[in-house]
Fold this protein.
Amino acid sequence: MELTYTKVGDYLIPDLVMDGQGAEEEMPLGKYGRMRESFLQEHHSGTYTSMLLTGRLDPHLREIDQQAREQVDRMVADLKKQNGVDEAMKARDQMGWVQAVNNFTQQAEEIVLNEIVYR
């Protein structure tokens, strides 16, 4: 494999890519992934450093982010269904609908943070 360079001003910078780096890594890390990263840095620095040095940190953070988002979405949908918060309510009482959905989202996030992000 031949090493290529990109000219930046008067300098040639090598085009280096870490193994396993693909299109998904170009997308910014979501809220829950960033929260997990902060948690690992503050409370499990050895694990954080090990995962960072072995290239396992980014995939781990992306997996946590995806799991947390999916779980919050599922829980909010279930809570809306259980409590009769539907499109008819949205048309009838927008503010009540927004308040209910925000409340359900907060409940779901609290559970997800404790069960997925901060474990």
